[in-house]
Write the C-alpha cells for this entry.
Amino acid sequence: MGSEASAAGPGGANASGAWGLIAGNGRFPFLVLEGARSQGIEMAVVAIREEASPELESAAKRLHWVSLGELGRAIELLHSERVTRAVMAGQVKHAKIFSSIRPDWKMTRLLMSLAVKNTDSLIGAVARVLEEEGIQLVDSTAFLEPLVAEAGVLTRRAPNEAERADLDYGRGVARHIAALDLGQTVVISGCACVAIEAMEGTDATVERAARLAAGRRLTVVKVSKPGQDMRFDVPVVGLPTIEVMQRSGATALGIDARRTLLFDRAELIAAADRAGIALEAVELLETRAGSPPGADGVGT
C-alpha cells in the first residue's frame, strides 16, 4: 500500500509500517485523508459506524466499519492492515460515548480500569491500549499544518474595545472550565458568562446563548485544554460555527493559536469578514516558552 512505500511524512523519515485513520464524524477524516495522500500516504480507515460519514466509502481505498465500543475489533482490523501509526480524526459525540456505547470485552476492561470516566480519560486510555498493541497514535494535525491557526487577528477587523474586554474575561472563564474537562467554549456578553459548553458542542452552545441573551451582542471564546493532547479532541472551528454566530448576534471569536484547526480556512475567514465577525488567535505562554500558563494562560 502507499503508506508502506512512503518512509517520509510525520513520524520521522525512517519510520516504517502502514498508516491508519480512526474516523469519527464531520470533515476532519476527509481532510486527513487528503493531507496524507498529498504526501504519498494511503491510509487504511477504521470508521465508527454511529458517527462517520458513509461518503468515506468513496474517499478511502480500504475502509472497515466498527461500532462504538468495539475496541478489540478495531485493533484486529488495524493489525490486519499492518498499521503501526494511526491518527484519530473526527468527533465522537460525548453523549454517545456514555449513553450509546456497547462495549466489547476489551473496552469493558478499559472502562473498568478508569477511576474517572470523562472523555479525556477514556480516549487517553484507548491511546495507551493502542500503543501497547504496537500502534502509535500520532498528532491529529500532523497532515493539516496549513489549517492550524497562527497567532494574531485573522480577519480584516480586529476586536473592538467591548469585544476585547469580553475576550479577555471569556478566556479566563474558559480555561477554568476546560481544566475541569467540562467543555472548551464559553459565550460572553458585557463581561458576563451567558453560556458554558457541556456535551452539546460549540454551535449548540452559541444557539443556547442567543436564546438567553435576548438580542444582546455576544462574544465566543473557544480554548484548548491545559496540556492539550494534540492526538485527539483538538479544538476545531468550521464554517457552520461562523454561520451560527452570525444568526446569533455573536460578533467576535477568540481561539488558541497553534492548537486550533480552521476547516475551510480561506472560506471561513472570508465568511467572517462578510459577517463583520472579528477572529483572533492568541498564543499560550506554555506554547511560547514551554512553561505552564498563568491565571489566564495568555501571552501578552
